[in-house]
Amino acid sequence: MGLITISTDIPWLSLIWLSLLVPSVLIAFIPDTQQQLMRIVGTGFAFISLVLSLLIFFAYDPKVAGFQFVERLDWIPQIGITYLLGVDGISLAMLVLNGVVIFTGSLMSWNIESRAKEYWIWLLLLTTGVYGVFVSLDLFLFFVFYELAVLPMYLLIGIWGSTRKEYGAMKLTLFLMAGSAMAIIGMLGIYFQTGLRTFDMIALARNVTMSAEYQRIFFPLLFLGFAVLSGMFPFHTWSPTGHVAAPTAVSMLHAGVLMKLGAYGCLRAAMWLMPEGARDWLPIMAVLTILNVVYGATIAMAQRDAKFIIGYSSVSHMGLVMMALASGTQIGLLGAVLQMFAHGIMTALFFSVVGRMIYERTHTRQLPELGGLGRVMPFAAVMFILGGLSSMGMPGFAGFWAEFAIFIGVWERYPLIAVIAALSIPITGAYILRAVYSVFFDEVKNPEFLNLPKLTWQEYSGALILASILILVGIYPGFLTDMINMGVAPIAQQLNDVIVAGR
């Protein structure tokens, strides 16, 4: 049994994504002059979605294998499309991550005044799509929610962004649309070649009738289609540009959650449904991820813009996720999902400090122009340092356990790749410490920075929530890893069986 008991007669998973779709509609009817009401409605329902996610998390029974809280309804039975929802240990962690990031992101959005109604509508619609992806077990429904999560990014960056926002929004959209095109081809390949004429992912996983030859053809399309969103090399260039151009809350969602959709799609759709294709292609993917991990960290070291540092850091850290997925081992998959969670919280904290606390007050993110901010905003300094310690994989923080599991899993399958990827560890420490010193402890470059406006209660609250989670998971990761392990075990076993059979 879970820690709490809730009625299974209530469609809890539907309520989670509806808890953000409904307010997006309500806000459309609020007069433009009532911006404070829009903020309260948006933040309030974001909090409700977080509470619902935590409710499901604590009601989930880790002793019961398989999916729980399943909801099924025939949608278009003629072509095998069902409204099918359910959660396991993997999706549970992602639900909680999304709930935390949208709630803290909504707190960081209280400064939005230009076209506030449209902003809140698109922000909530984006997060509705993310929730839908994490609970969908029908491949077609999965793709519908996936597109709903991706498309609002263009408007959110193009209208409310900064620093070449039109270029960043268009580049992001073109890359992600190309990825979606590959993904849908892979989906249709599965649909037609299995002969089952269904998009039910549970049925497809249990009755794999697609030949190994077809899996070799369609696996890279589906895997790379989703990997584009996770920033996998060589499709990563849109990501740092999008991070820099996006407003603070959107950057938090972009790096904290949206990039995880890509890795989640690779694991849940491609690897779960096409294990024989995975057996043949994952070694190649593992080699590509070396460039993500080491190249991303090296380029981050060369950046002068604090947001670009975080952007390329995300490329490196998500490279670790993809590398762990490519290992196909159970401990590697566990580390990948835990890293998705830890990195999501960590980058949300980074962007809340850099984008909201610093940039909104100093109007610069250039390291040579900043300095001495630790005197003016010591709270921001502490929060950035805590995020940095997790990024560096220091013991006592969530990032440590994630990276530790990843390197164990990768070493089991690809020892040389693990050794090369480890080069990113000292590089990460170098650029994090450089950023901390340049921004907070170097001499003051601009005397006006000594009189910056004080931080708001929203900034204090959001950052404290994120930092507390990094420490909590760092001290006691078991409450997450036990559930995640239950979710990744069947996929890892399936991959292992295929690999052994192919020898």
UniProtKB/TrEMBL annotation:
A GO molecular function held by the record: NADH dehydrogenase (ubiquinone) activity
InterPro entries: NADH_Q_OxRdtase_chainM/4 (IPR010227), NADH_UbQ_OxRdtase (IPR003918), ND/Mrp_TM (IPR001750)
Major site of localization recorded for this protein: membrane
Keywords: Membrane, Transmembrane, Transmembrane helix
One GO term of the biological process aspect: electron transport coupled proton transport
Bilayer topology term: Multi-pass membrane protein
Protein name: Proton-translocating NADH-quinone oxidoreductase, chain M
